[in-house]
Structure formats: C-alpha cells, structure tokens
C-alpha cells in the first residue's frame, strides 16, 4: 500500500469516490442476487439449512472475531456438531424411505401414454437418495470422530472445518465478514465511514469457508431434491389421463383430486418452511409500567402476581428495572420503571421512528429475526438474544436522536 496525495492506494480497489460507489453497488447487487438464489435453491430444506448449517457457522465466526474464549467457542462447536449428527441420522432414514417408495413405484403398471419424465424423475430420485445416504454416513463419521477424540483438540483445527483464520498482529485491518457489505477481496479494504471503523490489527482475520458450508449441507440438499424428484415423477404418472385424451374418466378425476391435495400440501410446506419462518411478529407484547418507587416491591408485586404475572428478575442498577412475564400462556412481558426514566422516553422515540421510517422498521425486523434464529439454534438466553440486536438498535436510535436534535 502506497501513499499518493495523502490518500492510501489499495491494490485492486477502484480509486476515487465514483469508482468506489460503482464497485460497492455491483457488490451489493450481486450479493442480493446470490441471497435470493440461495433462498430459492434451499427452499425445500430452508429451515434445516438456516438453523443447522448457516446461522451456527456465522455465529461461531463472529465469536472467533470477537476473541471469545476457547471454551465458549468449543461449546458452540459441540452444540453445532450435535445438531448436525441428528440431521445426518434424519437424512439417512428419510432417504432410505424415499428409495423404497421409488422402487415400489416401478412395480406399478405404466399407462400406454406415460410421459418419459416420470421414470426419469424416479431414476434421478434414487440416485440422489443413495448418494445422500452415503454422504451423510461419511460426514457423520467425521463428526463422530471429532466428538469422541480422547485427546484435547486444538480449537483452530476444529474451526478449520468451517473457517479460514489468520491470527497475526501484522495483518492489515479489514471489515468483518459478517457485515452488510460482502467481504470480497476487492472491497474489504475499503473504509465506509457509515459502517464504523476499521477492525484493529490484532483482531483475527476470519473468513467463512463457503465451500465447507456447501459440503456440510449437501446431504440434506440431496435428500430434499430426491423427495422433489419423486413427487415430480408421481405427479406425471398420476396425471397421465389428463394429457392422453382419455376424457373425464375415473382416472382423470383421481388426478384432479391429487393435484388439489398436492397444491394444498405444497403451499402449506412453503409457508411453514420459509415464509412463516421469516415473520418478524411475535405473539408476545412488551408493556412498560411506572411506579413511584420500584424498590418498594410490596406496593405492586402482589397485585401483579395475583393476575398471573411472574416476577422474573430485578436490575436495580439499571433504572430500578423489574421484569415480569405472563407465563401461562406466555403472551406478555412487563417492565417496571420509575416515572421519567430515560428508558421510557427512548421506547417512545423508537416506536415513533419505526412507524414513520419503513427502511429502519424492515432493518429492525430483519435484525430481530436473525438474532432469534441464532439464539434459538444455540440455546442462548434472552440476554444473549438482546445483545445480538443491540448494535442495530443503537444505530436506529442514533438516527432518531439526530432527527430530534438531541445529537449533533
């Protein structure tokens, strides 16, 4: 890196504001296209891909980047390995059942006008299911070997399954691979002021091994597409009376009935596997309650408990906060503060800002969903979930405060 007119020159990075903007635009667009394509391709097994592969790996990468202890990182790796081992067992059982179903279909009498797609789908389904069984067994053996190792293992060696890590104080500072701007080589050395500062030089350089993400999710992918190909062949077989000119006979009626049920099941599956999974709303509301002195708990705790609230925790060092929850059923969190507490004002400002600004409301929703996904996959507490969304909430509040003139 050399200096020219007081500005650093980074090899491979466009020079000038316009060049940087164009480069970032193309990186952002390509990243979004890749994200959309990934969502479509993983739709048949979206929840498994997110919960058992992608999110745990990104969480582990963030922990390494934040220099958490080896013990914590090892615990995260163990939880992830346990989830993957369960997934591999599921894949082997499900793929075996799919193979048996396809083999059984070959014994059915073939209609005279059966389209060639039906046997083609079924042959492909058998191939996919058999390879998913073999690959799941192979990867299961790898995970079990690591899990049962009699000797203490080097954490970095285990992390090599999913990450590239360079622990050197001499590496150039780069952006986090988990930031919104993708960490491709041509862009990652660009400092975007709005995104925050450079990472310190002593921070470990962490890059996700996307080829390994593909590897660890491949058995589930093969099994999911094997099921799709089986259903494709079944659909072509059942619907043969509709395209061979037999008219409205009994087989045609059965085909229509099958298509209706198939459409209903398909919509239900897509909703449960993808769309419902991404909904930011939750069936729990948060309520703020003010009392003259929260430390005098006898004045309000018995009344709240009498109507079903459970006293969960107290934080006297934080605005004398007391936390209650309506647990049976769980549908309400109640926070007790003193009147005039700054936290209450912050809640109102946040609410009004999100109502008026769609972009920040969508950002907030994405952040909550992402934090919930990661915390649920790792079995974290509510406090850890709150910590994961803290940075984005502070960024949104900063914009709201500046708009109100509270910050310069």
Automatic annotation (TrEMBL):
This is UPF0157 protein. The chain crosses the membrane at residues 88-109, 121-143, 222-243, 255-277. It comes from the Eukaryota. Keywords: Membrane, Transmembrane, Transmembrane helix.
